[in-house]
Hints:
CATH architecture of the largest domain: Alpha Horseshoe
Helix content: 25-40%
GO biological process, one term: methylation
Number of helices: 16
Strand order of the largest sheet: 1-2-10-7
Shape: globular
Keywords: Methyltransferase, S-adenosyl-L-methionine, Transferase
Pfam family, one: SET
CATH class of the largest domain: Mainly Alpha
GO molecular function: N-methyltransferase activity; protein methyltransferase activity; S-adenosylmethionine-dependent methyltransferase activity
Protein name: SET domain-containing protein SmydA-8 isoform X2
Amino acid sequence: MNTTATMLAHMAPCRDTTPEQLAQLIDMHLGELREKKPNWTLAASTVAGRGVFATRDIVAGELIFRERALVVGPTARKGQLSTCVCCHRLLPTQGFLCKQRCTLPVCAACSGSVTHRAECEHFRRWQPKDADAEEEQVNPLSLRILTAVRVFHLGKEQRHLVDAMQANAERGFRQEIIKAAQCFRNFPTTDKPFMDQLFRIVGVLNTNAFEAPCRTDGRETLLRGLFPLTAIMNHECTPNASHYFDNGRLAIVRAARDIPKGGEITTTYTKILWGNLTRGIFLKMTKHFMCDCTRCNDNTENGTYLSALFCREQGCRGLVIPVQTRTLQPDWRCLSCENVFPHSKMARYQDFALNTINNRINSCSVPDMIHFINDLCPRFCPPSNYVLIEAKLNVIWRMTRFDTDQYTTEEVAHKDRYREDILAILHKLGAGECTLKKLITEEIQ
């Protein structure tokens, strides 16, 4: 029952699926979560092949759909390796690997579960090299492909839905599989049908999967989840819909702004507060397209100046912003002295600001972060720059999610001011009732 042939059974390619066939697969996937008269439908899109469209006028804040994850697995990120792959609880420092020697981290309660049994047999059949290691350790390279392995154990229609989804043919995806294969003694690398299907699945996951937060026993873990309908929505840098996740396994999509009947329902593939250039690089490198939305064609981004840096000319502290909007290496111009600077120079300043702030985020306490934001950042970074906004978000997040009673009145006041700064930017962008707004105003816990 666990041979490669069995794993490939009923996985006939359906990559030329019509919108009507895809809609049927999505309906089966949604099950009882599908509304009798949904306010959305799937149709051909001029943006990217197919998309989600409003069947009637939808008002801001209205629920569009809810969707359970088709498959969920670990992100295999550093710092996320010591949680059970099934229930996501934090594991002890010793004895945390499966007793059956599949080398997956799993708690005692889940080790004999139906969920874990199939993947455990899978990994043991491939003979993990780490199974004989004297010291227990989790290999992130093999852990990363667990989500793909779980796809093989889905039902027939569910596997058809995975195969119907778009996947970028990224060379790095194949490298991911090759590196994972090297963790096993008996990985079926010579089985071409299996390897082709695995490559396809990994491509689908890397193109469409989301990182969804899951809270278990008061601790937050990021899961890697495939939500097909949510993934079908096309990108806009300031989208008219917004999604969030309920404990890592349920996606909830609501209208951020009013959406007219027939309008395409859009989401964002990037962080909404990133600057134009950062979003453009991310989309080009990971999604293989350049966005041409109104925001991307405005180098001030509705007057938010999220990409702005300080001018480096002596005696000038004006804001410098990219001149061109449709290139990843634009010239930059100071709005005060009007000097023009090459992208290579400004990119070094941006990288310096990004690295400096990220290092502080990863190492500083909340009081130290507040001091850094208020007293040190203004020396090298304009208050509008997105990396400083990220630092403010980090303070808000830590103060509202963890140890909320330990902060002084003054620190809480700084947090509230940061929140107002970010809400003002979201308003300028026209982000409406987006998820980030709801998160920082604590409408979503």
